[in-house]
Amino acid sequence: MVRARGLVKRFGDVEAVRGIDVEVRRGEVFGFLGPNGAGKSSTMRMIGCVSPRTGGELRVLGQDPESAGPRVRARLGVVPQQDNLDAELTVRQNLEIYGRYFGLSRAAVRDKATELLEFAQLAERGPDRVESLSGGMQRRLTIARSLVNDPELLLLDEPTTGLDPQARHVLWDKLFRLKSAGVTLILTTHYMDEAEQLCDRLVVMDDGRIVAEGSPAELIARHSTREVLELRFRIGEHDASAGRIDGLGERLEALPDRVLVYGDDGESLLEQVYSRGLRPESSLVRRGTLEDVFLRLTGRALVDR
């Protein structure tokens, strides 16, 4: 569906994407994970045929976006990072007018709008103005609008940013349904739980480069441990306590607000912490996550930027 080799994007003297290789297979959910400024959105805009590449090779749906942009865009669905719905129109009109841009007849767009309103759980809100919808509802409408042309490939840029946990889970369910229907999805996110839940494969980007690639489980197995012990100490005791823990487990990360100890048995690690005379204010044993992968690869948490 997408094939990039040595893909580069520059904005003046700034190199946002630095020679990356990407391959997206039909029917999968593929993710770009990384902090703000990593180059995710710039890559998505090149795949979406709205930003020309500076260098390298790129094929989307087997075609060159620079010479076949309109033909490729007709087969894409795009969910931008910020909702760009028309607040002056009703919910249904946003779908019907967008469908007309793709050359669908009035009868076809009416039927399609009805189908998509049901999919987005907005059937009863069709006559309402967009400005009356909640943030989660507007996001669902934006996704519904991106499906009006029955796209083969759906691009989603930070699809759940700013939404509450309940709205995020509703959107995840909609994306799972699209995948089950055979739509290929590419998404960018800086939420590690979202990437773990949705992506079959993903790349971790940092500073315009790909620093790791694989399934979420593969990346966690490769770059983290089965369990992680999180420790928080009183203000003023953090650095000294971290020094006394050094040597426990396979690896230790001292963050500004907590100390992470990596190993396969978190409870055993906690017992060893107490045996050294340390009394953390709080402790938590959890499984390894993609955030631990990113911390290992880049030296900082995903939320640092």
UniProtKB/TrEMBL annotation:
> Could you state a single Gene Ontology molecular function term?
ATP binding
Please give the chief subcellular localization of this protein. membrane
Tell me the organism.
Nocardia terrae
Family per similarity comment: Belongs to the ABC transporter superfamily.
Where in or outside the cell it occurs: the entry states: Cell membrane
- What is the protein's given name? ATP-binding cassette domain-containing protein
What keywords are annotated for this sequence in UniProt? Answer: Antibiotic resistance, ATP-binding, Cell membrane, Membrane, Nucleotide-binding, Translocase, Transport
**Would the keyword Cell membrane be found if you checked this record's keyword annotation?**
yes
- By its UniProt entry, which Pfam families does this protein fall under? ABC_tran
Q: How does it sit in the membrane?
A: Peripheral membrane protein
